[in-house]
């Protein structure tokens, strides 16, 4: 019988008790520490102390290198871990990193079934960034989240195709996406078995082009009689955040 693990994800900034407190309360099995992408010499020395303390609590510590001031990098890292633990209980600590990492982590919970929580410390330290920003563990509370619709697997695949195929001299067209979808047997084509090209383009527009355009993930430009499709900067960020769906 497969066991269900208690898995926590925590950006590792300038906090200690805000991470170790919930680890003890929830008797967690695995914790993912999202560490900022910077030289080891720039990180607080107590990061190693925290990892050692977690290990003494029989917590398996797994580290991931992330840009903690990049919302989409945090979003992508958190959604990927959540996807890897689809059968486990996943909670995300949004209070242990930067404000931007908190936003990314919270959005990740809204797009999945993970639980976001905020830790209340007993008090705060002074503003010296070389030291921990708070001390003690008073309590934690589950944050209210509102479900958001993330891109479908087919849509992420289409965005990935656009990113891979676009060059300075060539922009993919709608027919290129259809050919890719047929080759890779994307569900919007494979499950509907369109009888002709008109039906294929209708399915492409309804399932890929229209929703991605509405979300600002792609631009469609008419060049002659062709429809060229280009991934926007927002689309690139969304692809980075949800690439795990591939």
Average pLDDT level: 93
Note the total helix count: 9
- Rounded to an integer in angstroms, the radius of gyration calculated over CA atoms is 22 Å
Backbone structural class: alpha/beta
**Full CATH superfamily name of the largest domain:** Hypothetical protein VC1899 like domain (Restriction endonuclease-like)
What is the strand content? 15-25%
CATH architecture of the largest domain: 3-Layer(aba) Sandwich
What is the percent of helical residues?
A: 40-55%
Strand order, main sheet: write it out. Answer: 3-2-1-4-5-8
Q: Tell me the total number of β-strands.
A: 10
**What separation lies between the terminal Cα atoms?**
28 Å
Features:
two-stranded antiparallel ribbon; alpha/beta; 9 helices; Rossmann fold; Arc Repressor Mutant, subunit A; six-stranded mixed sheet
Could you explain the architecture of this structure?
By secondary structure, the protein is α/β, with parallel strands linked by helices. The chain folds into 2 domains: 6-142, Rossmann fold (3-Layer(aba) Sandwich); 153-245, Arc Repressor Mutant, subunit A. The chain has helices at residues 17-25, 46-56, 71-84, 99-110, 153-165, 174-184, 187-190, 197-214, 233-242, and strands at 6-12, 30-36, 60-66, 89-93, 115-120, 123-124, 134-135, 139-142, 218-223, 226-231. The model has no long low-confidence stretch (mean pLDDT 93).
């Amino acid at each position: 019988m497969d066991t269900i693990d208690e898995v926590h994800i925590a950006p590792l900034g300038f906090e200690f008790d805000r991470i170790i407190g919930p680890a003890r309360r929830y008797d967690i099995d695995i914790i993912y520490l999202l560490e900022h992408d910077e030289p080891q010499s720039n990180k607080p020395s107590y990061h190693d102390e925290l990892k050692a303390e977690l290990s003494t609590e029989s917590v398996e510590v797994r580290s991931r290198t992330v840009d903690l001031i990049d919302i989409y990098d945090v979003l992508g890292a958190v959604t990927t871990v959540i996807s890897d633990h689809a059968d486990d209980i996943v909670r995300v600590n949004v209070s242990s990193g930067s404000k931007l990492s908190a936003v990314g982590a919270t959005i990740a919970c809204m797009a999945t079934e993970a639980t976001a929580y905020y830790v209340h410390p007993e008090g705060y330290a002074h503003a010296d960034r070389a030291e921990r920003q708070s001390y003690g563990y008073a309590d934690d509370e589950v944050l209210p989240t509102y479900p958001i619709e993330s891109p479908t697997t087919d849509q992420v695949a289409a965005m990935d195709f656009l990113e891979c195929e676009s060059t300075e001299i060539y922009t993919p067209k709608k027919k290129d996406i259809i050919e890719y979808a047929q080759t890779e047997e994307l569900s919007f084509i494979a499950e509907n078995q369109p009888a002709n090209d008109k039906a294929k383009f209708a399915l492409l527009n309804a399932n890929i082009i229209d929703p991605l355009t509405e979300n600002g993930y792609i631009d469609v430009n008419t060049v002659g009689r062709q429809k060229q499709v280009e991934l926007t900067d927002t689309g690139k960020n969304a692809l980075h955040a949800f690439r795990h769906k591939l």
